[in-house]
């Protein structure tokens, strides 16, 4: 799997179209993860196949979505060695305000990376 650090227009378009449909659900899930004390760093893995990270939140085709959305958090990513222990502080520094941005972990054939996408304004 090659990792392209740049988010191509192809990904940006499909992710943005999907995100508009699921953003309210993800924002609520982020709030619940934080308010219940699970983590201050919610992460939402998205993929078109099952990636086995997190708990499935929205399946492909639900809400007319092209991607599967799961709910997870930083501790699981560290436990699974997706974020190295030595990089936790760097991740936390890069993490954006979860009330304003959603942290997606995009997994696809040619792209695997974290992206932060702003929630639509009400």
Polypeptide structure, described:
- Helix content is 33%, strand content 26%.
- With 122 residues, it is α+β, with helices and mostly antiparallel strands.
- It has a five-stranded mixed β-sheet with strand order 2-3-1-4-5.
- A hairpin with a 2-residue loop joins strand 4 and strand 5.
- The relative contact order is 0.22.
Pick out its properties:
122 residues; globular; 5-stranded mixed β-sheet; single chain; disordered N terminus; alpha+beta; 33% helix; 3 helices
Mean pLDDT equals 89
Gyration radius, in Å: 14 Å
Residue share in β-strands: 25-35%
What structural class do you assign from the helix and strand content? Answer: alpha+beta
What portion of residues is helical? Answer: 25-40%
Q: Give the ordered list of helices and strands.
A: HEEEHHEE
Strand order within the widest beta sheet: 2-3-1-4-5
Q: Major beta sheet, specifics? A: 5 strands, mixed
Q: What's the total count of β strands?
A: 5
The best one-word shape is: globular
Whole-Å distance between the termini?
Answer: 38 Å
Low-pLDDT sequence parts: 1-5
**Helix count from the secondary structure assignment:** 3
């Amino acid at each position: 799997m090659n990792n392209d650090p740049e988010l191509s227009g192809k990904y940006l378009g499909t992710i943005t179209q999907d995100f508009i449909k699921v953003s309210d659900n993800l924002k609520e899930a982020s709030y619940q993860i934080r308010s219940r004390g699970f983590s201050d760093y919610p992460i939402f893995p998205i993929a078109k196949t099952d990636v086995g990270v997190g708990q499935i939140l929205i399946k492909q085709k639900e809400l007319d979505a092209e991607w599967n959305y799961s709910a997870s958090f930083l501790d699981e990513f560290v436990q699974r060695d997706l974020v190295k222990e030595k990089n936790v502080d760097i991740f936390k520094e890069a993490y954006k305000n979860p009330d304003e941005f959603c942290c997606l972990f995009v997994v696809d054939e040619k792209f695997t990376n974290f992206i932060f996408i702003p929630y639509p304004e009400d």
